[in-house]
Specification:
The protein has ten helices and no strands. It has 274 residues and is mostly helical. It has a single domain, classed as MetI-like fold (Orthogonal Bundle), CATH 1.10.3720.10. It is elongated and about 75 Å long. It comes from Pseudonocardia kongjuensis. It is found in: Cell membrane.
């Protein structure tokens, strides 16, 4: 338990240091550039606004967290779909020598398309709401999962494959004993990238939707009043950043815990580890 606890303390300390550095740079830029409140408010003014009341009488922080949950919900669905789609395509890419080379350029092309350009067609096709945001999150996050699964399966040592063949193990057994654990290991290492891109996709899908719900809608609404009320937009931006980081680390911890539990149930025949 000391290892995970020490890692958690190190991550928390690192977050505190980064936050202090950002605050110092913020105030330094404001001081050196001579920016007034309407262009860049003080950090304490932004933090104080979290306790202010919105026009509906709701506390600003509660209002922002409620809208963040709408975005996070779509991002979580997108992460699950991205892992499922990425795993299936990764297995096909690695296990089918003919299909893999022809499929990978299409996957790279889908990843090269700008996400901002994909959002309006998705909103038009599926309407504003969680469906379009989930599809956008899936499209944004599935490619790292494809690469991780394909690489994990491809890097299984030939000696281990030959050992299972010598035992007369069927191909299905080779997949569950060798290839699936390798794919899980690589996927758990890539899950932060998947989660980060999926969250970004969910945020971008809300921009052209015109909906009132979601953290991106709050950022757009707050930006219209920035010239005389800049604090709401900075509060929304802080919540977006903090929510994205928290989601990435939470999903990473859950997937790694699930991968460790799955790997404990897989046992190689004697001598297969060598």
């Amino acid at each position: 338990m000391r290892g995970p606890r020490r890692d958690a303390v190190a991550v928390a300390a690192g977050c505190v240091v980064v936050a202090l550095v950002v605050v110092a740079l913020w105030e330094l830029v404001k001081l050196v550039a001579g920016l007034d409140r309407t262009r860049l408010p003080h950090v304490w003014e932004v933090l104080a606004h979290f306790g202010a009341r919105t026009s509906q009488g709701e506390i600003e922080l509660v209002f922002l967290l409620g809208n963040l949950w709408v975005t996070v919900r779509s991002a979580v669905f997108g992460i699950l779909c991205a892992l499922l789609v990425g795993t299936a395509l990764g297995v096909l890419t690695a296990k089918r020598p003919v299909l893999g080379p022809s499929l990978m350029p299409l996957l790279v092309l889908s990843r090269a398309l700008p996400l901002v350009a994909l959002a309006p067609p998705l909103v038009i096709l599926f309407g504003p709401g969680w469906v379009a945001a989930t599809i956008m999150a899936t499209l944004a996050g599935f490619f790292p999962a494809v690469v991780a699964v394909a690489r994990g399966i491809g890097e299984v040592p030939v000696a281990q494959r030959e050992l299972l063949d010598s035992f007369g193990a069927p191909r299905r057994r080779q997949f569950t004993v060798l290839e699936l654990p390798a794919a899980l290991t690589h996927t758990s290492a890539a899950i932060r990238t998947v989660a980060a891109w999926a969250f970004l996709g969910a945020v971008l899908a809300e921009l052209p939707s015109g909906t009132q719900d979601g953290i991106a809608a709050v950022v757009l609404a707050a930006s219209q009043y920035y010239s005389y009320r800049p604090e709401p937009m900075w509060c929304a931006a802080i919540v977006v950043a903090g929510g994205g980081v928290a989601l990435v680390y939470l999903v990473s911890w859950l997937v790694r815990a699930a991968a460790r539990a799955a790997l404990r149930t897989t046992h190689l025949p004697a001598g297969a580890e060598s």
